[in-house]
């Protein structure tokens, strides 16, 4: 007897083959049978006539591994059909840590990831994965090793190349994490201390990742004026080390750079033709999400939070801060995200304090007009009041670039998102809308790709990039991660004004054979697993 039979579905199996009608039998967490008329009995039969039956969607770029520790039943990902998430991106990891680095890493990660006050009760990545294994979470979770933690363990926050001994320590720590089951390694060219690394350091670390068949995901050093140079560095690393490389949340920010994705995607494709295993992902929105302190120049942001706030509170420093934001700092390599859109295009997304909730959704420029002060005063005053961790949204791109990127066959959609902001504030709508938007808007309505191809981008493509052996395809023997959606009605409904609206058309979501979501409700947390490279581990 099967646990479930899904009857009369339109099978979109993740290969981009044309859909076909069939039944799907599920037993013991696996796909047991796919055939036109299953004769086996089942504990539960669901008629899915007219609905698409697809592999569960894989979000290969998230920041949820900590937020699920404090909010395991968050519905933002499963409600859009996601069954597997990979964290540890953009150089951010909560391990390894020791008694010296634990507090600095907590102070760096927690405001960025929306988990203020979380204490890291572990040391190694292996210990952290064991914590995840024992915790509840609504989707499967795996992680990469972020650069920041291992660099801090080896050499603190020093802005210099590592010594030979320090580099060997980083390589050893990375190897330990890969042995523990992480899927690869991530860096961030705009996040300290990862952005202090030069290319030789990254080559050495990526050579270790290549030994394990892991993936190297990078938040480029530049996503605007020097974006093509940053892509070239990533492709060089892939060529010299043989690592599988992924350009994360690819974009060309600022009007002067619109259209550059055509050139960068050509570079990536040429590298593939030369034998480099390179790929790319993106979220389908023209506005990005950062913490508000990302506006600050490095001479402010590079301090501890308390020291930085002291500088911000000193009004005599604000003209210098504004000048650096507007004009950059010659020779520093720092890229001012203010230049992407100015204060009119920067909106407050989420705050912690109830008294500031009315600021959510407003631009910095509008708040300045309301208060009768300068925009730089708004930024500094909010940070002094709230501390670091205020979410902002920035208009950076154009719709034409999104469509250019989505036409590229190796472009995987991702959310680049936390779970729901834990303070109850605003969010980027990508947190609830990314995958249904690609299916409904770009595939069905804009016809940039077939629905079957959109499913492939969300399933077998990220599974192959990550090395997930038994997920991403709707085949017998594979894990029963299954998303059932209505191809005629699936669409995102989350907006900047209402960012937590649930997507339409996501009917059923199974995680390892357990029905986790239906009728826009989470119904069971029991199916999700911790995923380690090459294997999965149940929580019991």
UniProtKB/TrEMBL annotation:
Q: For the Amidohydrolase domain, which residue ranges apply?
A: 44-191, 427-514
Name of the protein in question:
D-aminoacylase
- What is the residue range of the signal peptide feature? none
**What's a Pfam family this protein contains?**
Amidohydro_3
Organism superkingdom? Bacteria
UniProt GO MF annotations: hydrolase activity, acting on carbon-nitrogen (but not peptide) bonds, in linear amides
Q: Which InterPro entries match?
A: Amidohydro_3, D-aminoacylase_insert_dom_sf, Metal-dep_hydrolase_composite, Metal_Hydrolase, Metallo-dep_Hydrolases_sf
Source species: Pyramidobacter porci
